[in-house]
Amino acid sequence: MHILGLPTDIFNVYPASVKFKTYQARWQIGDIYVSGDARKTEDNPQGLGCYLVMTGRGCDDIFRILDSRNYTFGDMFRRCERRYGLDNFHFTRLDIAIDDKNEKPFFTIEQIKKKCEKEEFISN
User: Fold this and answer.
1) Contact assessment for residue 3 and residue 79, using Cβ atoms and an 8 Å cutoff
2) pTM for this one?
3) Are 23 and 9 in contact, with CB atoms under 8 Å apart?
4) Mind listing the pLDDT tens digit for each residue in 25-43?
5) What is the rounded distance in angstroms from the CA atom of residue 68 to the CA atom of residue 87?
6) CA torsion angle for 25, 17, 52, 30 (degrees, to 10)?
7) CA 37 to CA 22: how far, in whole Å?
8) What CA–CA distance (Å, rounded) separates 111 from 58?
9) Any idea where the domains of the chain sit in the sequence?
10) Do residues 1 and 34 lie in contact, with contact meaning Cβ atoms separated by under 8 Å?
């Protein structure tokens, strides 16, 4: 919300848990879900952080928000690093779905990796 520059009052807020982790809240707008506000415990002294889930439509929505501000997804991740610091910001998982059901794949994994490194991607 802060990273995208969106007001928090446009999100629906719910109690949240993801698998075996309990968050205090989940903010949702359309197909974008952000779980967070995990309390620090003795077993988890830094808290759980933030858990972001976007469906394909959610990615499209975030792309439009970023594009309207002349930002890319790369810019968004750099803003996260600046806001939270490299020691406090990391990805534990990034799932990308490419609907490619061709007999010969359109992209190899190595090609996708190179395109991501060069920020050669769009969402629409």
Assistant:
1) yes
2) 0.61
3) no
4) 888 888 888 887 666 777 6
5) 30
6) -70
7) 9
8) 24
9) 8-117
10) yes
